[in-house]
Specification:
The protein is of the alpha/beta class and 405 residues long. The protein has two domains: 217 residues, 3-Layer(aba) Sandwich (Aspartate Aminotransferase, domain 2), CATH 3.40.640.10; 129 residues, Alpha-Beta Complex (Aspartate Aminotransferase, domain 1), CATH 3.90.1150.10. It has twelve helices and 13 strands. The strands form three sheets. A seven-stranded mixed beta sheet has the order 1-9-8-5-4-2-3, sandwiched between helices. A three-stranded antiparallel beta sheet has the order 7-6-11, with no helix packed on it. β2, α4 and β3 form a beta-alpha-beta unit. The protein starts with 51 loop residues before the first helix and ends with a helix. The structure holds pyridoxal-5'-phosphate. Pyridoxal-5'-phosphate (PLP) binds next to α3 and α4.
Length: 405
């Protein structure tokens, strides 16, 4: 089993085979890790991996006084098209904006989305003026399961948003057959799966439109940020126009926003892209340690043979008898942050009820959502912290089961 490789000060030794063995795997200003004076410090759920290269890149932009959308955004877009094998990229200010823009450019009117995913997917679809159909998910991957949809639900739908949940690519061959059979357009949201692949092909290279997010907790970050990728020139022009860039083109029915990315963000993104593969490797190593340390205590999501998981989130399933909020609270008392993940599922949210698009029962999601949590996952998570999290989990779960009897 590989051990996580931790840098000690910035990223200069990102790829060095060095272990964080003691108490100071992080800079003094970090709040992530263990004792300086005997007292455990809070382990957060996520933390962006930022080093001196990002500081230098931002400083350079500030010194140039060219702070808005300029050459660096273009450079970042070009780097993204190359990385994900697409012809066009339009960088924007968030993943939500990217999804909104992609759906508007496509003119989607009724879209199928997984009920277990980020609420931003629902928000973007509704803001783009689409009606929403919620789909149940697969028990083992939590990815969208279109086979559960009825003919009635499919009627009038023109697109599906696939989200590669927690960083594991969905079964794209199976989805493709289904989409072709029902004449549905694929919108690929790989916000959680930057750097993952399906049978060797990168996520983000499949959808007619693909979108991603560069939010602080994501595989690579620009603070806030996002991008739309496509091979279709007209869609790309529409996105460029809709983003608020001045373009010679005019598109009826599309009103420009101002949702552009700045050169400051792009400068960070360009550095992060260089680190992407290394950061994914670190996340995968941490996941390997969790799988080893939590075996028999929590359920975990296995890696499918067609993909290489990037572990945007390390999702774990609580055993029967363990109430989610009680687990989160007990772990919090031990200075370990645990995430609720996508709970309630989107079709059970107030927003879904308000817009009248909720559905009464999606049984797999309804069973999974109250039992699924996420454990801290970020490249710099140290070996002592992983051990602390595993030990705390191993002692907390039996106590909660005993309490429930
Ligand atoms: C699948 C998915 N889509 C969209 C978003 C929205 O991205 P942002 O937070 O950048 O708006 C997120 C997460 O934040 C996400 O996980």
């Amino acid at each position: 089993m590989l051990e996580p490789r931790i840098n000690t000060n910035g990223h200069e030794n990102l790829f060095a085979p060095k272990l964080a063995t003691g108490t100071t795997g992080h800079r003094a200003c970090d709040n992530a890790t263990t004792a300086m004076s005997g007292k455990s410090m809070k382990i957060p759920l996520g933390k962006p991996f930022i080093g001196k290269e990002e500081f230098a890149a931002v400083e350079k932009v500030l010194a140039s006084r060219r702070l808005a959308t300029g050459e660096l955004v273009k450079e970042f877009e070009d780097a993204l098209t190359r990385k994900f094998g697409r012809k066009y990229c339009i960088a924007v200010n968030s993943g939500t904006s990217a999804l909104y823009l992609g759906l508007k450019a496509l003119g989607v009117r009724r879209v199928i989305i997984p009920t277990i995913t980020c609420g931003a997917v629902l928000n973007a679809a509704l803001n783009a003026g689409a009606r929403v159909v919620f789909s149940d998910v697969e028990r083992d991957t939590h990815n969208i399961d279109l086979s559960t949809l009825s003919e009635g639900q499919l009627s009038g739908a023109d697109a599906v948003i696939v989200t590669h949940t927690y960083g594991q690519a969905a079964d794209m061959d199976r989805l493709d057959q289904y989409l072709k059979k029902h004449g549905l357009t694929l919108v690929e949201d790989f916000a959680q799966a930057i750097g993952a692949n399906y049978k060797g092909r990168p996520t983000g290279s499949f959808g007619r439109i693909a979108v991603t997010s560069f939010y602080a907790s994501k595989g690579i970050t620009t603070g806030h940020g996002g991008a739309v990728l496509t091979d279709d020139e007209e869609l790309a022009l529409k996105c460029l126009y809709g983003r608020g860039s001045r373009t010679p083109a005019y598109f009826t029915g599309l009103i420009p926003m101002n949702i552009q990315m700045t050169d400051i963000q792009a400068a960070i993104g360009l550095v992060q892209m260089k680190k992407m593969d290394g950061m994914i490797e670190m996340r995968r190593t941490i996941a390997g340690r969790y799988l080893q340390g939590l075996a028999g205590v929590l359920g975990t999501i296995g890696e499918k043979p067609w993909t290489s998981q990037v572990y945007y989130k390390f999702a774990a399933i609580l055993p029967d008898g363990v109430e989610k909020q009680a687990f989160i609270q007990r772990m919090g008392e031990q200075e370990i942050e645990v995430g609720t993940l996508f709970d309630p599922p989107l079709h059970r949210t107030q927003l879904a009820a308000d817009v009248g698009d909720g559905q009464s029962e999606l049984p797999v999601a309804e069973r999974l959502a109250p039992r699924t949590v996420s454990l801290p996952m970020f490249p710099e998570l140290s070996e002592p912290d992983i051990q602390r999290i595993c030990q705390a989990t191993r002692s907390t779960i039996p106590r909660l089961i005993a309490d429930s009897r």
